[in-house]
Design goal:
The complex is a heterodimer of chains A (about 350) and B (about 110). With about 350 residues, chain A is mainly α. Chain A is built from twelve helices and two strands; from the N terminus they run ααααααααααββαα. Chain A starts with 7 loop residues before the first helix and ends in a 17-residue tail after the last helix. Chain B is built from one helix and ten strands, in the order αββββββββββ. Chain B has about 110 residues and is of the alpha+beta class. In chain B, the strands form two sheets. In chain B, strands 3-2-1-5-8 form a five-stranded mixed sheet, covered by helices on one side. Chain B has a five-stranded mixed sheet with strand order 4-10-9-6-7, with no helix packed on it. The chains are: A mainly alpha (about 350), B alpha+beta (about 110). The interface of A and B includes residues 241, 243, 255, 260 and 261 of A.
């Protein structure tokens, strides 16, 4: 993985110096006028670029092709389900369902995760079974329960559409229409779906009014008493790790299916919290409909399940007001609406 | 962050181990990386008979394991400050991971 230039770094230092100066000038900061610390700015300011694999660097042609494919239901066996059916940009790139609906309206076992900021993830899917977005993009297409589209049928279907043939040539010259090309193009598009500035980001950059006082207090609880940062760490609010957080889901072993290590029984990937207010219902099985329910779950230290509850989980003893503050902080992670043009798909 | 105690303990262990012919190498789990003497490592070479002591220096749990043919083990989850040791008897290569944080990978070559 190659990291793009981090122009933000210089800015971070400038802001940090400014904040330090402000702190010294005003002395002790009273509650209700909480300012981001230098450490907060270093840890949470969004990077300016996304990591890209050397063999699939993002180009406008690749992103454009990926966008067309992402929204095209002809990528499913029924010609009725596109990637965007479950990863709907109008619904926080999810679907509002507790768990996803797949081929033939069949209900799947896990909820549709957002594709926002997947560029920063190291393993894909709730159980981390795919090591790259390129691999992940092909998974649901071929999965019988999801889009149920055998690849050997899809390739000729796409090849029969001249516009797509041109677009593949522009994106991946000389490679034709291929399974790898489909995966790479969709991955390029997904990598371009990056969180935008939220109230929290603007507050980090020095706009004090960008977050409400409850949200500011919620951030302190998030880092402190509730220790959400044990897993939801960094600017993407994820450790890219796997934890059993005590959801009573006896049928799904989660990460254990991929790695047979005891601690992974019932463990699922830590999702990003950016735009989390847009992606209800919550958890891998969609069992909670509100963020307040989620916070209450953590507050009681999770529930019993057949796996090994993460030792990071314990009752938090948060008051009702503290729980509400935490929810307000989570809401402050909603970014500005993404500017996105929708593709006009070629008819034939 | 390098803990002075760790270094001292490591040196003391190393001195005794040299006398016994086998060493104990301290590998820390710090900032979700494997670290030796404060520096991030992805590969480590040891001798057959040596042990690696995995010390958690992060303020959250780690769970070090390996499913390698050379050595299969699962140290379970343990918090900051705790260490668990694994002895490598035979030559070969073992991939060591943290179950909770899959970005943490260490390739150990036993000579």
């Amino acid at each position: 993985m190659k990291m793009g230039p981090f122009a933000v770094k210089k800015l971070t230092t400038q802001i940090a110096v400014a904040v330090m100066g402000a702190s010294m000038a005003f002395g002790v900061i009273a509650a209700g006028t909480l300012k981001p610390s230098e450490e907060d700015i270093t840890k949470y300011l969004r990077p300016a670029a996304v990591p890209q694999p050397a063999d699939n660097m993002m180009t406008p042609e690749r992103i454009e092709l990926g966008k067309f494919l992402f929204f095209d239901p002809r990528l499913s066996g029924s010609n009725f389900i596109s990637c965007a059916t479950c990863h709907n940009p109008s619904m926080g790139w999810s679907d509002g369902q507790p768990t996803a609906i797949g081929h033939g309206m069949g209900q799947l076992a896990r909820s549709s995760p957002t594709i926002l900021n997947t560029a920063y993830q190291s393993l894909m899917m709730w159980d981390g079974r795919f090591r790259s977005l390129e691999e992940q993009a092909l998974g649901p297409i071929e999965d019988g329960g999801e889009m149920a589209q055998p690849m050997h049928e899809l390739i000729p279907e796409i090849k029969a559409i001249p516009k797509y043939v041109q677009m593949f040539e522009a994106a991946y010259p000389g490679e034709g229409v291929s399974k790898e090309g489909i995966g790479k193009a969709i991955a390029s598009f997904e990598r371009s779906i990056v969180a935008t500035d939220s109230g929290f980001d603007r507050w980090l950059k020095g706009v004090d009014t960008a977050m409400s006082d409850p949200a500011k207090r919620g951030f302190e609880i998030f880092k402190g008493k509730a220790n959400c940062v044990a897993c939801h760490s960094g600017f993407n609010f994820s450790d890219n790790g796997f934890h059993n957080i005590g959801l009573p889901d006896s049928k799904d072993d989660g990460r254990y299916r991929v790695k047979k290590v005891a601690v992974l029984k019932g463990a699922f990937k830590t999702p990003t919290l950016r735009d989390v207010a847009l992606t209800a219902p919550y958890m891998h099985n969609g069992q909670y409909s509100t963020l307040a329910d989620v916070v209450a779950h953590y507050n009681r230290g999770g529930d019993k399940n057949p796996g090994h509850l993460s030792p990071n989980m314990k009752p938090l003893n948060l008051s009702k007001a503290e729980q509400q503050d935490l929810v307000e902080f989570l809401k402050a992670l909603t970014g500005d609406p993404l500017a996105l043009t929708f593709p006009q798909l070629p008819v034939n | 962050m390098l803990n002075t105690k760790t270094v001292v303990a490591g040196l003391v262990v190393a001195m005794f181990s040299v006398a016994a012919g086998a060493a104990e190498v301290v590998v820390a789990q710090n900032s979700k990386s494997f670290k030796k003497d404060g520096a991030k490592i992805e590969k480590l070479s040891i001798k057959a008979g040596d042990s690696i002591s995995f010390k958690n220096e992060d303020p959250f749990f780690h769970n070090i394991f390996s499913l390698s043919d050379l050595k299969t083990f699962d140290l379970g989850s343990y918090p900051a400050g705790e260490s668990k040791s694994v002895k490598f008897d035979k030559p070969g290569v073992a991939e060591i991971e943290c179950a909770i944080h899959p970005d943490m990978l260490l390739e150990v070559t036993v000579k």
